[in-house]
Write a structure and sequence with these properties.
The protein has 178 residues and is of the alpha/beta class. The protein has a single domain, classed as 3-Layer(aba) Sandwich (Rossmann fold). It is built from 4 helices and 8 strands, in the order E-H-E-H-E-E-H-E-E-E-H-E. The protein starts with 7 loop residues before the first strand and ends with a strand. The relative contact order is 0.26.
């Protein structure tokens, strides 16, 4: 039996609608039954689409009303039918120790999805992600847009990527070695 990890997924996001579609697809394929919180790192430069992707995922999971960016509050919490979602934006974090005041450690349990923008600002204080999504602006392309690279870090993350692969129409998601 081959247990080698499958390659990461890469997807070109030409428009905001493509980013929204990826967020919705991620929500539809969230793996169930994890013993701990599911952790997703959303990484990329300013304006690369991290919050847009998170909003689409939250909407697809059933978030109603305004889905706020946690840029100033650091965390926004959503009690949804499928799970509890904590959306963090650590861009303004001055020190990883500031996370201790959020009580994040108490939230790391089954039934919680943790979406973390700018995780590199507090990597030492965060749990290891199940899924890492790197968004980049692709200005040099013939049709400018963004690139999304999704990498599994855990077995649960790998299961999530497999579900995403299986759910996407042919040609939508391309693979390449991690």
């Amino acid at each position: 039996m081959n247990t080698a990890p499958r390659p990461a997924l890469q997807r070109t996001l030409h428009t905001e609608a493509d980013t929204l579609a990826l967020g919705a697809a991620l929500a539809r394929t969230v793996p169930g039954g994890a013993g701990d919180a599911l952790v997703v790192y959303l990484q990329g430069e300013l304006g690369s689409g991290k919050t847009t992707l998170a909003r689409a995922l939250l909407r697809e999971l059933g978030a109603q009303g305004t889905v706020r960016s946690p840029s100033y509050t650091l965390v926004e919490s959503y009690e949804l039918a499928a799970c509890r979602v904590l959306h963090l934006d650590l861009y303004r974090l001055r020190d990883a120790a500031e996370l201790e005041h959020l009580g994040l450690r108490d939230e790391l349990r089954a039934g919680v999805l943790l979406l973390v923008e700018w995780p590199e600002r507090a990597a030492s204080a965060l749990p290891v992600p199940d899924l890492r999504i790197l968004l980049s602006i692709d200005e040099g392309a013939v049709q400018p847009g963004r690139q999304a690279r999704l990498s599994a870090v855990s077995a649960v993350g790998q299961s999530w990527l497999e579900g995403l692969r299986a759910s996407e129409p042919a040609g939508t998601v391309s693979s390449y070695p991690a």
